[in-house]
Hints:
- The chain is an alpha/beta fold.
- 30% of the residues lie in helices and 27% in strands.
Amino acid sequence: xxxxxxxxxxxxxxxxxxxxxxxxxxxxxxxxxxxxxxxxxxxxxxxxxxxxxxxxxxxxxxxxxxxxxxxxxxxxxxxxxxxxxxxxxxxxxxxxxxxxxxxxxxxxxxxxxxxxxxxxxxxxxxxxxxxxxxxxxxxxxxxxxxxxxxxxxxxxxxxxxxxxxxxxxxxxxxxxxxx
Length: 179
């Protein structure tokens, strides 16, 4: 895997072996950014189930100012740290080594872009989007990008957010919510 485009374009990304994470393929990552960007003029990105960190690193590569990556798996944290080092700009990244609930208690400020690719998609996505919104962590122009298996049907609306775009790529479904 590699960074698809932007400042770090072409640089390799390390991923975890095994079934603990499902890294977003280069093709799907490129398609996601074509849906939502493809480039940004600053802003904050949150990747709540970071895995390898590829989505958040791609977002910074394409112009986001800073990223917060959250993962509770120690092996994933090690891979994320290596991938952040590859950027040569570690100051743009903050890795929180904890679960989603713990992270939400520590986070502050609004995010412009949020990636959610949790292991148990539907229930966790609805709960997390609701909590992020209630805690004021979503900017008025936020895009919440959810990656699920193609068979998962997310609600049309979650709180004040509604589906803006939705596409299926192979076995993955990408759903983008906006205010």
